[in-house]
Design a protein that fits this description.
8-stranded antiparallel β-sheet; 15% helix; 52% strand
């Protein structure tokens, strides 16, 4: 028998604003329909979004004052360009269907 354990964790600044939001599945950072980790600055502006599948980071976006300034892509802990990432993912999706 397999038991699936999911967990949602939110941390707050002393001023009441959200600091971080994280989703876990079986103890690993994981979410398939959006970022599994988000971090905000004290003023409530998004600072970072990270996408994880089974504990492996796939994408990370950094923000300054709520505006995206950098986006990075990963597969098996190796950093890829956006184009390389999209090409690999499209091939993987064709294999699944």
């Amino acid at each position: 028998m397999r038991t699936v354990k999911s967990k949602y964790v939110v941390d707050y600044y002393e001023n009441g604003n959200i600091f971080t939001e994280q989703y876990f599945l079986n103890g690993k950072c994981h979410k398939t329909n959006g970022p599994s980790y988000k971090r905000w600055d004290k003023n409530g502006n998004i600072d970072r979004e990270s996408y994880y599948i089974n504990g492996n980071m796939c994408r990370e976006s950094d923000y300054i004052n709520g505006d995206m300034c950098k986006e990075s892509y990963f597969l098996n802990k190796e950093q890829l360009t956006k184009e390389e990432f999209k090409k690999i993912i499209s091939v993987m999706l064709r294999l699944v269907v």
